[in-house]
Write a structure and sequence with these properties.
six-stranded mixed β-sheet; binds fe (ii) ion
Length: 287
Amino acid sequence: MTGWRIGVDELIFFHLTDTHLTGGPDELLFGQADPADGLRAVAAEMRRMDLQPAFIVISGDLANHGTVAAYKRLRTLLDEEFATFEAPILLNLGNHDRRSAFREVFLDEPGVDEATPYYYSRWFGGVRVLMLDSVVPGETFGLLGEEQLAWLERELATPAPIGEIVVVHHPVVHRGIIRHGEDGLILRDRAELARVLDGRPVIGILTGHTHVVTAASFAGTTAFTGTATAFLGDPSTRDGGRMLNGAGFNLCTVRDGTLIVNSIVLPSDQRVLFTYRSSDVTSARAH
Ligand SMILES: [Fe+2]
Ligand SMILES: [Fe+2]
């Protein structure tokens, strides 16, 4: 189990999601909140824990409008706030992101077509992390597509000794109570994903997008959704959404062949920042 930071039987990592970074402190979300504040608060709490994560993963909606300026600001913030961990930061993309701008800033790959998905895997000891790309440009729902699923199937053909962790922005299960228009907010080809994962040693799926802490059974494993660092979602709305001030993240541990997720929501006033109706969701701008 080489590569594990603490002992041979414990792998610690942090799961963050939905940073929704803007291009600068004057560009507020809902005219009220700077998403950098939540990210800084989460980072401070992570440092307070005095743990040694093997890696940090952020599951999409990295930038609120997918601009080069926002990705540059995010890169600077990650350097400032997370350098102390000396841990790799694994990023994937959500419906608010723009692949081309992300690639230009983070991968030094300018000029790549927006339609080219960004997916990859990384090993940490006996654990493989599969970073998927569910973005459909201009849409709020997610889709992996046949090509990416075929790649995933090839990866999984060699099973990870400890387990596989799948990270994807769009949830593979609904947020909870039945909500009007919810099919427009989920991973569309989740049944095909379940087929590819069937029988494989998948110890968990980590997602974002809803900004609501959720744990659900799926395809013989557990799917976890973390809350956002930018703002919280209210799980009780039957129509549309109610977004609240606040931030959180997941402390994750792999031990005894199991992925254990501790969700941390930081104290906040949870004031309402924004509400919308399901009928308002006409573009990739929701969640
Ligand atoms: Fe999203
Ligand atoms: Fe989001």
